[in-house]
Structure formats: C-alpha cells, structure tokens
Write a sequence for this structure.
C-alpha cells in the first residue's frame, strides 16, 4: 500500500473526534436557539377596537397611508396590499334581534406577542420589538415569503410588481410615532372612539369591564386575548366573531412555542443518532482498520531491496 493511500484513510481516532465534535456542536446549539423569542405581555402596547362604535368612515386607513407615505394617500383601500397597511371591511350580518345590518371591521397586522412570522423568518427581517409592535426590516428581507405562510391571520403582503427588490408590507403599529411619544396614526385619527391605544393589560381590564357592564351589548369574548398566545390588537363586538370573518379555530398557544418544544429536543435526537451512527461505522469498518494497521506493520518490517544499478 502506497503512502498516499495510507494518508487518505481516516483513522478510527480521527473519526471519533469528528463525530464527537459534531454531536457537541448540536448540543451546544440547543442552549441558545435562534428561534426563541420573548413572549412576555407585560409592559407591551396594545390597541382595543370596539366594533360597535365603528361607522366605516375609513379615517384610520387614510391616516395610515398619509403617515407611512404610501401611494394614493387619498384613495380608500379595499384590502391589505403593498400600498395599504390597514383597511376597513364591511360585513353584512344578522344581529341578535334578527335584523340585517352592516358591521365594519378594521383589519391590519395583529402584532402577536410571540409572532409566527418572526419565528419563521430566516433573516430576522421580521422582528419583535418587545414593546408590542412586530416590525418588518426590508434591508434584511430575502423575499422567501415564509412569513406569509406562517402568519395565522394571513396578513403580510408581498409586492409582486417589484421583482428586483422584494418587499413585504404590513402594519408596524407606527413604531416611529410610539418612540416619539405619539399614538399610532389610525388611533389618533379615529373620530368615534373605536380605536383605543394604551398598555395591553390596561386595555384588557377595560374590555372585560365593558363587557361585564353591558352584557346584552357585547359578546363575552375579547378576541386577541389568548388566540395564538395573545395579540396586541384586541377586539370586542356585539356580533360573534366568526360572522365577522375572524378565524375562530386558532390555538390558544403561539405556534412558535410548539415549534420550540420540538426544536429543543432535536439536538439531543441528532446527538443520539450521531452516536449510534458513529458506533455502527466503527463496528462496520473495524476490519478495514485492522487491515490497514496490519499493512502498515508489514511494510515497516519489510527489508529494503537493492536498486537495479546496485551491485549484488
């Protein structure tokens, strides 16, 4: 066996070192998972939307466009898209007394406390501020649209007309205004008191107090309090939420929490698999390793032969 062939063989000791290092790397990675996020709702901003007060004036939607320098600032949006972070949807419903009526529902990003879009984004383009708003950072975006797939409310919108620089559009709760001590533009523009902005926990207390003091007016539920682990946008209504197009089969825990349970166990599973595979490989190749060691010993013990031009 030539020296070059002997060098290309991986010794058992080197193989075990590599396998051990790989396993340790997986185990160490579990100590600081990149998908973990702060799920605390304490001290976060929120918005309480009282649908019994909304008249469909669209002041909120137009103020949002103006504040965010979106195109066609004077045109009332009819859906969420790359040019509209929020819009007011008109829904035809039948009230408790059997009368058909129109209800208006403001739609926008729900700003989940433990957002699935943040967990799914591989480039950290979706970012949880820790204060309520879930912020999109376009300079990091890869255009993969994983956030669209992950969002339980189907909120993020992709700009299909921009093939060179892909951009996702969504409400960011006017985070720049919050940092300047102002309310979000939509809440400031609302003339009917439909939108109430403040600390989420205080808004929840107010919402439950309103429901308790007006049992015949409101459905006994605050949408967003516990859906998908809780959201910063909260709704109260006199019409069941399923009639207004709200998803009512959502889990009470955030999707990333379920993912984290699985992912936290994954390094140990992979580590165990690596150990088993290492043992199998060593067992399977023990014959070739012994053969290599025997060849090396035989070569070292062979006497040197005279060259052709050497006299006998």
């Amino acid at each position: 066996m030539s020296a070059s062939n002997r060098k290309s063989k991986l010794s058992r000791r080197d193989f075990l070192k590599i396998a051990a290092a790989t396993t340790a790397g997986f185990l160490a990675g579990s100590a600081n998972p990149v998908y973990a996020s702060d799920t605390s709702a304490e001290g976060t901003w929120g918005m309480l939307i009282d649908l019994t007060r909304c008249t469909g004036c669209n002041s909120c939607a137009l103020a949002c466009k103006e504040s965010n320098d979106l195109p066609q600032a004077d045109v009332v949006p009819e859906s969420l898209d790359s040019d509209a972070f929020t819009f007011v949807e008109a829904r035809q419903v039948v009230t408790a007394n059997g009368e058909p009526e129109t209800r208006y529902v403001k739609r926008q990003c729900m700003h989940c406390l433990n957002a699935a879009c943040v967990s799914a984004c591989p480039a950290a383009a979706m970012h949880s501020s820790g204060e309520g708003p879930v912020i999109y950072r376009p300079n990091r975006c890869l255009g993969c649209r994983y956030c669209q797939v992950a969002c339980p409310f189907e909120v993020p919108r992709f700009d299909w007309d921009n093939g060179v620089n892909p951009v996702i559009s969504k409400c960011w709760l006017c985070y720049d205004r919050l940092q300047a001590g102002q309310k979000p533009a939509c809440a400031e523009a609302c003339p009917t008191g439909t939108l109430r902005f403040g600390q989420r926990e205080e808004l929840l207390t107010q919402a439950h107090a309103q429901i308790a003091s007006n049992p015949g007016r409101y459905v006994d539920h605050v949408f967003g309090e516990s859906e998908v682990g809780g959201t910063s946008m909260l709704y109260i209504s006199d019409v069941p939420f399923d009639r207004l197009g709200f998803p009512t089969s959502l889990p009470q825990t955030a999707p990333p929490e379920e993912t984290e349970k699985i992912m936290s166990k994954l390094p140990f599973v992979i580590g165990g698999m690596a150990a088993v595979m290492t043992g199998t490989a060593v067992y399977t190749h023990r014959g070739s390793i012994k053969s290599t060691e025997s060849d090396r010993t035989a070569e070292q013990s062979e006497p040197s032969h005279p060259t052709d031009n050497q006299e006998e």
The CA atoms of residues 218 and 238 lie 4 Å apart. The domain at 45-253 is CATH 3.30.70.20 (Alpha-Beta Plaits). Confidence is low (pLDDT under 50) at residues 1-10, 15-39, 261-266, 306-312. The chain is about 35% helix and 15% strand.
